[in-house]
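Case study 2.
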Amino acid sequence: MNNGDVFCILATGSRHHEDAGLIGESLYEVIAGTGARNIVIRHGACPGGADQIFQEFCESEAAWFDREGRSLIVDPVPADWDFCGPDCPPRRHRVRKKPGDVFHPGVLDDYCPGAGPRRNLAMVEKLPRPDVAVGFPLGRSSGTENCLRAAKAAGIPVRRFTTRARRGGDAA
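Prediction:
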């Protein structure tokens, strides 16, 4: 079930998520069931939304884990929105950034829409291998759903947490 004394959680969620209570409670629910001394929380490093809440959770709770003789390790995996990969179509496919766009950081005025799915796959494949993927979708949440599908395809158990099902995330 886990990688020995390390339990890796792949955490993904909407860039518009604001429910830190739901996310914190849900992460603690998943962590409580592991028994592992070292917890890794891997997220997509998107500014704002769920990724920012994952980051803040790790920063605020790390001292408590340390006092308990455990460790909470944050593992952000940002997308490279400036880069087009070999999987990109040969025709023009880049998207111009809207004024004030903070969700696609980079130096260029446009971004590659394939960067998010490439980052999601990298989070699934990176070692230590995730023991579980937890998702916090809002509405359509196409990036969150893409990440959860990639995790499920890799044989990683998936749990979704929504504001309607605040306790006991739904297994997917």
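The chain has a mean pLDDT of 92.
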